[in-house]
């Protein structure tokens, strides 16, 4: 159960190796027993995350989970809920392909769309059902400012994130009165494994700062979290640009 | 009738949704228990528990407040039979004019008989008067098998003492028979002393001689030395009742509700404002005052302000109440220092002396000092409350479940050594775990 200070007792991280997701989990670890379920495909990085969280006192379980296989999601997540309530779930999986590569290779574009959008919709429905039944819960959807108005440089990724944001914004409203809340995170550039191959812009955030903004939004009961703070301004500027200008943006 | 809606406790923190069943008679309640789904059933009284004790997310919550009939009053023997949803206020209105009183009442008259049993509540006279459970003669309990059993302490001590303090987890209390005590007037003679220094306050708290003496101290931790107002009340003699009321000294004067002033939350969470509101900081007040007050005015001071729990704003508040053994004075002092250094400013606190505990497996009261402090809920409170829980657990004390909304299962097990016995009785009485609550989930009861 979430307690009076907004501390969950159990967290489900979908995309169990996400830097931002793990940073959120770390913020909720304060020496109390925290049940952490990492849902991901098996990898050395996952083992590393399990070891690290366990050493900090978390009781860690892993679930074999592939975001690209929506037909397996319900069966994969059912045991997590069967073993006890999930107080907070983080939808953190996602692919960030190079725009040109995605346009050169149809399969890459399709895979990006199905993981970032279809996969997110799929777990969103499963989580909403399970949490409505338990009468409480928080869903954190890690989306992106790229979805606010996709640009020439990122519209494969951006369009999928636009869909994800739209879905979770809608989900948030549809769950009012059920005890379940949704926070849609509109993240700007955050230095992480996912963005390691890119050159970071001046106002880039860190996973830890993103996690702080996210846990604050959860406590405040906000439906949207912007991180870094500048992402909100950036999104407003990009939304206001005439299409003619947007078309020529180099980034 | 069932409606799905969010519920919180009095502290207005951590809402969860439940299907709330209202207006149910015994048969409907028994059916609800027999047909309970995986999320179970829980009784709820007036919702005066501060935390999540009366919440059952995803399950059924049986609202007992409409079951509010007083069934029988034995005016000779001093026994009242009442449905579980009857409030302390309603009982006092009925029995006081006839010269009777409940021997134990909590600090709010709005709590129900069911809630008073489930939390085995204590009053300001616990030192010699004991807890609520000591005065319960019998109750009807709807158990997980859908049957109603009559439970008496002598015949079924296990179920009785698992239910007293059992936070609704043994079943639904439907009706209870309560022992009353004689009363000469509906008034109390209240002596208030302004005292500086913890030792002097504790000495003052220790002066009660009998079960009709009520003692409490409201303390202010903001200065270098603890300051407080010690209130000591005993039943007023007829001669002391204000002349205007002397012809009918037993007429019960309930607290007249005043609407809560629309003060901004930020203002009220400032300790000085709160302290002023509580009268602790009235430096100009004389060191000793003696007044004759209606019983309710002394016993239920906060009931005069409707919905005062809203002043802490949107995130609600926690009331942290713990008890430590009588000789754990260093721990008490350390706890006060921890509270005084809190992130949200210095909370106002209430200090009482409790007497020996009863046989309730999860009952809170035990011989020692109990302190309750209100604080606006915030994540930044976590280290403070964690430190308090450590201190209290190590000293052999405990936190009050009816107020709690932040304890961990680990501390719970240390603070309530009889938890294994409680679990054992629950396993026999309710093998499927029909009766469930958010508190039970959080603390793995
Ligand atoms: C201003 C204020 C002052 C207080 N002062 C004191 C005090 O001095 N001493 C003290 O001991 N407590 C005090 N309390 C706490 C209060 O007495 C307890 O929390 C009490 O349990 C509240 O009763 P309720 O009817 O509101 O029950 P709820 O808050 O609705 O429920 C509390 C618990 O009782 C169970 N319950 C309720 N009805 C039934 C039933 N019919 N059958 C089985 N279980 C049931 C619920 O499941 C839950 O676990 C105070 C509370 C307030 C708000």
TrEMBL record, chain A:
It comes from the Bacteria. InterPro entries: NAD(P)-bd_dom_sf, Sc_DH/Rdtase_CS, SDR_fam. Gene3D superfamilies: NAD(P)-binding Rossmann-like Domain. Signal peptide: none annotated. PROSITE patterns: ADH_SHORT. Keywords: Oxidoreductase. Its EC number is 1.1.1.333. GO terms for molecular function: oxidoreductase activity. Belongs to the short-chain dehydrogenases/reductases (SDR) family. PANTHER family: 5-KETO-D-GLUCONATE 5-REDUCTASE, DECAPRENYLPHOSPHORYL-2-KETO-BETA-D-ERYTHRO-PENTOSE REDUCTASE. This is Decaprenylphospho-beta-D-erythro-pentofuranosid-2-ulose 2-reductase. It comes from Herbidospora galbida.
From TrEMBL, chain B:
It holds the Pfam family ALO. Keywords: Oxidoreductase. Residues 13-183 form the FAD-binding PCMH-type domain. The keyword Oxidoreductase applies. InterPro entries: ALO_C (IPR007173), FAD-bd_PCMH (IPR016166), FAD-bd_PCMH-like_sf (IPR036318), FAD-bd_PCMH_sub2 (IPR016169), FAD_lactone_oxidase-like (IPR010031), Oxid_FAD_bind_N (IPR006094), Vanillyl_alc_oxidase_C-sub2 (IPR016171). GO terms for cellular component: membrane. This is FAD-binding oxidoreductase. The lineage of its organism: Bacteria, Bacillati, Actinomycetota, Actinomycetes, Streptosporangiales.
């Amino acid at each position: 159960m979430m307690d009076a200070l907004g501390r969950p007792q159990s967290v489900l991280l979908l995309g169990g190796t996400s830097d931002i997701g793990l940073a959120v989990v770390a913020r909720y670890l304060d020496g109390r027993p925290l049940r952490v379920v990492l849902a991901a495909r098996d990898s050395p990085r996952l083992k590393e995350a399990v070891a690290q969280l366990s050493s900090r006192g978390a009781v860690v379980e892993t679930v074999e989970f592939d975001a690209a296989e929506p037909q397996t999601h319900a069966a994969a997540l059912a045991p997590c809920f069967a073993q006890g309530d999930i107080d907070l779930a983080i939808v953190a999986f996602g692919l960030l392909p190079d725009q040109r590569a995605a346009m050169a290779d149809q399969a890459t574009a399709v895979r990006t769309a199905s993981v970032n959008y279809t996969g997110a919709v799929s777990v969103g429905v499963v989580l909403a059902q399970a949490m409505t039944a338990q009468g409480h819960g928080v869903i954190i959807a890690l989306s992106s400012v790229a979805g606010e108005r996709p640009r020439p440089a990122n519209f494969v990724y951006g369009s999928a994130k636009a869909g994800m944001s739209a879905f979770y914004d809608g989900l948030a409203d549809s769950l009012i009165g059920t005890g379940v809340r949704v926070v849609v995170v509109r993240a700007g550039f955050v230095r992480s494994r996912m963005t390691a191959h890119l050159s970071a812009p001046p106002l880039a955030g860190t996973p830890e700062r993103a996690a702080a903004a996210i846990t604050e939004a959860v406590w405040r009961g906000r439906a949207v979290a912007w991180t870094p703070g500048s992402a909100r301004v950036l999104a407003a500027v990009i939304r206001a640009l005439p299409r003619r200008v947007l078309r020529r943006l180099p980034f | 009738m069932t409606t799905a809606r969010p519920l919180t406790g009095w502290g207005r923190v951590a809402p969860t949704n439940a299907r709330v069943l209202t207006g149910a008679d015994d048969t409907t309640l028994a059916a609800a228990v027999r047909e309970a789904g995986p999320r179970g059933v829980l009784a709820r009284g007036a919702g005066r528990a501060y935390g999540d004790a009366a919440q059952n997310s995803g399950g059924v919550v049986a609202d007992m407040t409409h079951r509010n009939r007083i069934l029988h009053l034995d005016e000779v023997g001093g026994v009242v039979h009442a449905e579980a949803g009857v409030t302390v206020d309603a009982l006092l209105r009925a029995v006081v004019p006839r010269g009777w009183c409940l021997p134990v009442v909590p600090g709010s008259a709005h709590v129900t008989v069911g809630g008073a049993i489930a939390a085995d509540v204590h009053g300001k006279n616990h030192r010699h008067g004991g807890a609520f459970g000591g005065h319960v003669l019998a109750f009807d309990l709807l158990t997980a098998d859908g049957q109603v059993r009559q439970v008496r302490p002598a015949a079924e001590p296990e179920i009785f003492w698992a239910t007293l303090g059992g936070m609704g987890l043994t079943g639904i209390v439907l009706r209870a028979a309560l022992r009353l005590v004689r009363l000469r007037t509906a008034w109390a003679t209240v002596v208030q002393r302004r005292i500086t220094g913890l030792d002097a306050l504790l000495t003052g708290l220790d002066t009660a001689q009998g079960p009709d003496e009520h003692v409490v101290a409201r303390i202010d931790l903001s200065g270098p030395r603890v300051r407080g107002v010690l209130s000591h009340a005993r039943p007023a003699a007829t001669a002391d009742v204000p002349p205007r009321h002397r012809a009918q000294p037993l007429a019960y004067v309930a607290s007249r509700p005043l609407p809560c002033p629309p003060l901004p939350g930020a203002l009220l969470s400032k300790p000085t404002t709160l302290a002023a509101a509580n009268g602790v900081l009235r430096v100009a007040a004389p060191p000793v005052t003696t007044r004759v007050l209606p019983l309710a005015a002394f016993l239920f001071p906060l009931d005069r302000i409707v919905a005062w729990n809203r002043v802490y704003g949107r995130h609600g508040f926690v009331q942290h109440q713990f008890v430590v053994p009588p000789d754990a004075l260093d721990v008490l002092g350390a706890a006060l220092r921890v509270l005084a250094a809190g992130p949200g400013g210095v909370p106002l606190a209430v200090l009482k002396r409790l007497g020996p505990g009863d046989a309730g497996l999860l009952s809170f009261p035990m011989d020692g000092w109990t302190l309750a402090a209100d604080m606006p809920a915030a994540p930044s409170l976590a280290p403070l409350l964690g430190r308090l829980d450590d201190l209290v657990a190590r000293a052999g004390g405990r936190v009050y479940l009816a107020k709690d909304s932040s304890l961990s299962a680990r501390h719970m097990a240390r603070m309530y050594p009889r938890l294994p016995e409680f679990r054992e009785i629950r396993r026999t009485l309710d093998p499927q775990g029909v009766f469930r609550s958010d508190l039970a989930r959080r603390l793995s009861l």
